[in-house]
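seq:
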Amino acid sequence: MTESRYEVLRYYPVTSKEELIGLSNRALMEWWLSFAPRTPLKSDFDILEHIDLVPDIFLVKRLNETDFEFRVHGESANNIFDEYIGKIISTQGPQNNDRERKDVQLAQYYVEILNQPSCVRNEGILSFLKKKNVKFESLDCPLLDEQGNLAYIIGTITILGQNKGHS
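struct:
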C-alpha cells in the first residue's frame, strides 16, 4: 500500500499576494492578478520570464470533465508530489488504496478550482521527510486555453520554514 506524501489541512481562495508566505507563490499570484479582471491564458505564461519559479512550478491540464493530466513538474514540486509527467487522475478513478483515494480527491479539487476561477491557497504537512510536521504552502491558479475555456491549473508549492521560498 502506497502512503500519501502530503496532507492538505485546509484550502481557500485568495485574492492578494499578501495572503501568501512562499516567494514562488507570491510571485505567481502577482503575475496572475496582473491580468485582472480576466483570467490569463496558458499562452500568457512564459516560463522564461519566471525562471525563479521553475523548481516549484506545476501545470495540470483538464482533459474532460473528470480527468486531469500532470503536464509539468519542477524539481521541488516533483519531489513533493512524486508524480510522473503524463499521469492522469480522475474523479472516477479507482480507490483501492490511500494513494488512489488521494488522486480522486485531488481530481475533485481540480474540478472545484476550474468551476470557480480564482486562485486557491493550500496549507498542509509533508509526511515523506525525516523531520516531522514540515509545512507547505501551495497556490493553484486556473488558466484559459486558446478557446477561452478553463482548462489548465498552474501552481507553485513551497516548503515553509526554510530559507528558500520563505519571506
